[in-house]
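Troubleshooting: if your tokenizer reports a length mismatch, compare your output against this known-good record of 351 residues.
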Amino acid sequence: MYLSVAPSPHHKGTGDTSTVMRNVALATMPGIAALVYFFGAGVLVQIIICITTAMLTEAAVLHLRKKDISTTLKDNSALLTGLLLGLSIPPLAPWWIGVIGVVFAVLIAKQLYGGLGFNLFNPAMVGYVLLLISFPVAMTNWSVPTELSHHQVTFSDIISVIFTETTTTGMTVNDIRHTIDGVTMATPLDTLKTDLTLGLTVGESTAKDMFSSWAGFGWEWVNIAFLVGGIYLLKIGVIRWHIPVAVIGSLLFCSLLGYLLDPDSHGTPIIHLFSGATMFGAFFIATDPVTAATSNRGKLLFGVIIGALLYIIRNYGGFPDAIAFAVLLANMTVPVIDYYSKPTSYGNKAD
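Known-good structure output:
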């Protein structure tokens, strides 16, 4: 008989990196379906552009670093980065928007640090923030939900707008973004923030077409779809509950407190939870195992920080939806969180 001695962890998971990344990608399918239903097939085009760019960029960098290309690409991390960034880009944004964002995410935010497992910040969110700061108009030109659109846009129009910035009949993105009432459509959170700045109350703002009876029109179902995907990830054990529950709970507490103190100038908790990228961020972005806190206590604190920052930036910052900024700022706190929340090694006294 032989005694095998190995370092911890002694209980190992059965899923490898490739499987985990593939399961996360599969879990986005309900959200993708909802986005396509409300905002058109441009969502799929952006995803294809971003995934293709991510794979090519990763392969090029690996070639320069003299690393094995096929083995690394099979871990699906580049695919997932492209997918997550593609989901964050407006469906009718120019094609080069996604290319720039993905190249920066893979090249600078991931490979410059040494590749998967060494990056300090979530690559997809680094790419998104670069685009949002550099091209704010293009990155906030979300399409009108199909039911509110004044124009019916065909698939050939979508392709034409993305690659030439006009439809086959000469319409621009701004022309397409007009609602049935002839008003240029903004995202619900952007509309709410702008209206509050102009002195309108929450009730007056949410009476507009882009709001349903309880949240942003179309966005409530997008968030529910990503919530379903997130629950699937929890069920199969790809992520744990601590971060998403802490993000949602922190945002719920902050938004409820603000609404109770001044309901005329603070959106309802339901608006905050089911408009914008709340559920997408809580389940698919904040839970990145490389850039999030490691211990259970640390994950709870990490999630609370994200939820609080999300609310603060939405209400008092310059951007209506702030999940990317909240996650990146929280990423900076991870070393300190891990230092003070790490469990004591067996046989040693706590400090």
